[in-house]
Design brief:
This protein has 220 residues and is of the alpha/beta class. It has 2 domains: 3-124 and 200-217, Rossmann fold; 131-195, Alpha-Beta Plaits. Helices cover 26% and strands 27% of the residues. It has helices at residues 3-13, 30-39, 54-62, 100-108, 140-149, 179-187, and strands at 23-26, 48-51, 76-81, 85-86, 92-93, 110-118, 131-135, 153-156, 167-172, 192-195, 197-198, 205-210, 213-217. The strands form 3 sheets. A 6-stranded mixed beta sheet has the order 2-1-3-6-12-13. Strands 8-9-7-10 form a 4-stranded antiparallel beta sheet. Strand 1, helix 2 (30-39) and strand 2 form a beta-alpha-beta unit. The longest helix has 11 residues, at 3-13. The chain is globular and about 50 Å long. It starts with a helix and ends with a strand. Bound molecules: ribose-5-phosphate. The site of ribose-5-phosphate has 17 residues, from helix 2 and helix 4.
Amino acid sequence: MSADQGKRMAAEAAMEYVEENTVIGVGTGSTVNLFIDALADMKARIDGTISSSEASTARLRKHGIPVLDLNEVGTLPLYVDGADESTRFLQLIKGGGGALTREKIVAAASERFICVADESKLVDVLGGFPLPVEVIPMARSYVARELVKLGGRPELRSGFTTDNGNIILDVHGLKIMEPIKLEQQINNIPGVVTNGLFALRPADLLLLGSADGVRKLTAE
Ligand SMILES: O=C[C@H](O)[C@H](O)[C@H](O)COP(=O)(O)O
């Protein structure tokens, strides 16, 4: 089974958790794009969405799905997003598409975070996927030196600017044994907006598309 099939199965399985007359938090990426396409079928029955990126906003609007302002909406009942890696504790690396900061905001503002992914994203230890860190441009060199002190090899994501006007440093070579500690350490570096570890606020449910169907994982 291809990764694309796994993504589609997971994205469509998330529809079961979408309740009528609610506002849905929507993540970013190729798996979420499939969720957005499925969500279009029930757009008349939801109150709207909160989007985590300009790319998702464009796709939602193309389908005629309303996109609201998070400042005008209270706590969201549900956030659906993909991941680059997940452990069985549902701690994640996100940000392969550079949307990590807005994703973290919407996840934090949501009661339930359902992560949708194909089975290749499940790992024993985070860090095989380079950890994205969003950085204010003037702090690039300083933050890079601090990330080296933490044992990583930061590389500037060339030609990329985030929706917030910042740069991304992708940190290679980390074997992340203490995700919560590292998430806090990196976020404490002046100039870092946030990093792609979702450990302080992990997912609540992981829907993994696999050859055996959709596996549902909750944190062990
Ligand atoms: O910034 C991008 C997001 O964190 C994505 O959710 C993540 O990169 C996974 O994307 P995909 O579903 O395309 O594998």
